[in-house]
Amino acid sequence: MPEALIQVENLSRYYQNHRAVNRLSFTLCAGEVLGFLGPNGAGKSTTMQVISGNLAPSEGEVKIAGHDIIDAPREAKRHLGYLPEHPPLYRDASVDEYLGYCARLHCIARPAVATALAKVKAQCGLEASGRRLIGNLSKGYQQRVGIAQAIIHDPPVVILDEPTVGLDPIQIREIRELIRSLGSERSVILSTHILSEVQATCDRVQIIRAGELIYNASTESLNQRHEVSFKIALRKAVDLAELSAIADVDHAEVLGDGRFRLIFAQDATPDALVASAAQLQWGLYELIPEQQSLEDLFIELTQDEEAGKA
Questions:
Q1: Per-residue pLDDT tens for 249-308?
Q2: Distance (Å, whole) CA 119 – CA 148
């Protein structure tokens, strides 16, 4: 089994009488990219602050590469890189000046700084930008510098908070590729509100609501979680009740223009539908399986809380 680089066990955090995080537990292994999702106020930022050592837990424990964030904070933080939503960049410094400063903050020996800079600039596509002022870089390249400062000390664990906010589509694609490359040798936690970003970048998704973990699974398992859905098109007018009565069909929805959405029980197949359509001459000419998107899942899992706030 891969080494567990992040271990969170029964983590809780209180703000006076308000419980922001409630007995949260999960493990993240080397080479995994975890998408960390939740509605506003769900406890994402609090969890990130506790994992990064910027906020003490009220209960439970967090270990980074085997080091407890409370009992051994220096050792734990040496194994951690962090990119906040607003990167702490010095706009009047050049890329080389800033990254050299970050290297020294991470206690990289002076003779090794030049090697560390060359390596991280190559990883982040900054080879030609070393002498440029950070303030003159595009937003996408400033994010690259932010990621570079997070990995300058070669940490096995990286936390990225909203790394693609404000970027154009080309920059977003480039940053996503960079995040995937980081995940090939590190544990990465990606906190974001962009659901498509998680599906495009992450190996696993974790959703919290009201400080509690409500979903934790691989992105590949999204389509196996609930029913199977198909869109169909019929040339003949068919009553909705006839479609709902087909074996394995839980319910049917009218989409218009002779099209319907049929929701089947989990692991069911549309064989009975095809047989009925042929026998009754419905003129079935479209049968399209639908995949459950992360957006569908997110809304399904969080809508009860949002309704309660209304």
A1: 888 888 888 999 888 877 778 899 999 999 999 999 999 887 666 777 777 777 755 444
A2: 10
Task: Return d(Cα 181, Cα 296) in angstroms, integer.
Answer: 28
**Which among 38, 8, 46 has a CA at the least distance from the CA of 25?**
8
Q: Is the dihedral of CA 264, 268, 269, 270 positive or negative?
A: negative
Q: What are phi and psi of 196, to 5 degrees?
A: -65, -30
How far apart CA 192 and CA 214 sit, in angstroms, is 17
| 136-156 pLDDT per residue, tens | 999 899 999 999 999 999 999
Contact 273, 232 (CB under 8 A): yes
Element (H, E) at 305: helix 294-309
* 33 in Cβ contact with 5 (< 8 Å): no
For the beta carbon of residue 219, count every other beta carbon within 10 angstroms.
17
CB-based burial, 97-119: b 16+ in 10 Å, e otherwise? ebbbebbeebebeeeebeebbee
**68: how many CB neighbours lie within 10 A of its CB?**
14
Q: What gap in Å lies between CA 5 and CA 81, rounded to an integer?
A: 13
**Cα dihedral 161→162→163→165 (10° resolution):** -160
Q: Check if the beta carbon of residue 71 is closer than 8 Å to that of residue 61.
A: no
* Selection from 96, 95, 62 nearest residue 79 by Cα: 62
144 alpha-carbon distance from chain centroid: 18
The H or E element that residue 191 is part of is strand 187-191
Closest alpha carbon to 159 in 303, 250, 269, 55:
55
| Both structure tokens of 281 | 């001459």
Domains of the chain, earliest start first? 1-79+155-225 (3.40.50.300), 86-154 (no CATH), 227-291 (3.30.70.100)
Q: Considering the entire predicted model, what is its pTM?
A: 0.74
